Amino acid sequence: MDQINVFLMELTKPRGLIFAFVFVGALTWLCYAFSDKITRGRVHGSAVAIVIGLILAFVGGMLTNGKRGIADVPLFAGFALMGGAMLRDFCIISTAYGVRLEELKKAGLAGVLSLVIGTFVAFVVGVAIAYAFGYRGTVDLTTIGAGAVTFIVGPVTGTAIGASSDIIALSIAAGVVKSIAVMILTPLLAKPFGLTNPAAAMVYGGLMGTTSGTAAGLAATDARLVPYGALTATFYTGFGCLVCPSVCYIIMRMIFG
């Protein structure tokens, strides 16, 4: 067993990031297979993968008494880089470059309004929950509120306005919970809410915003609706990254001082 551990460390230590991508790829494949074979598509593979990722992060932190989750385990040290700010910001930029304003026009006025309303409603709900749990600082409230928009907007906002690492972590957790909830609840609420056509999917994508949650939820509902929901949801993250550290933060300073 010791020889195996030594071999694995020698193999993965200089290739930590590559191993992290291979591990995540294999885990994602297994999660999608589980979704397809066990739940018959009722729970999307992305939701399963996120839950397992959270469990692994928790177990890694408990085993090592560390602060970086599974990245504190030497074998999985590459996750610190994979999940760090550099690749996070790369994802944001690549998403922004993939957006075309011509496509947003296809969503029409309803799509644009849903985008704006969805962003600010999510922010207000996040702020209200943070306030109810005793947070009073403007920076803390703004960061957690931004996390309720998406788990990308939260850390971007927190970094921009100087939030602590603990608050940024809470903002990410808020966004992940929202993403999982959207994945799971979308198929259940689709018919009662009339989410059965492209126009409704566009509005839904703008209101929910979390691209991963919306796309996965719509895929489990009707795969034909995914492009329409993702169309407005794609703009949601970019819009949130613009308004939360600026407009929302200014408003919060005016209210809370």
Automatic annotation (TrEMBL):
Transmembrane stretches, start-end: 43-63, 75-97, 109-134, 141-161, 167-189, 201-221, 233-252
Keyword annotations of the record: Membrane, Transmembrane, Transmembrane helix
Pfam families in UniProt: MadM
Keyword check for NADP: no
A GO molecular-function annotation: sodium:malonate symporter activity
Limits of the Malonate/sodium symporter MadM subunit N-terminal domain: 11-256
Superkingdom of origin organism: Bacteria
Signal peptide: none
InterPro entries given in the database record: Mal/Na_symporter_MadM (IPR004691), Mal/Na_symporter_MadM_N (IPR018402)
Protein name in the entry: Malonate transporter subunit MadM
Organism per entry: Rhodoplanes elegans
Gene for this chain: madM
